[in-house]
């Protein structure tokens, strides 16, 4: 089943770093996932997130306010 991943952030350097880490983990491990970048502040507010970047996996906020390690992302997606 395809994982639905959303990266919430306005495009700041940390948000870009998180996007890169997530994309690398998906590519390196052959994970079936779609990535959506959510940059609209009103959309981000719907998730009740005040600090970005935030990682949302299948509509559950898993990480917010920091860039995760590759291992952390892999653990979340498995």
From TrEMBL:
Disulphide bridges, residue numbers: 12-15
Pfam families: Thioredoxin_3
Record flagged with keyword Disulfide bond: yes
Thioredoxin-like fold domain location: 5-77
Keywords, in A-Z order: Disulfide bond, Redox-active center
Disulfide bond is among the record's keywords: yes
Active-site residues, Swiss-Prot/TrEMBL: 12, 15
PANTHER family in alphabetical order: THIOREDOXIN
Protein name as it appears in the record: Thioredoxin family protein
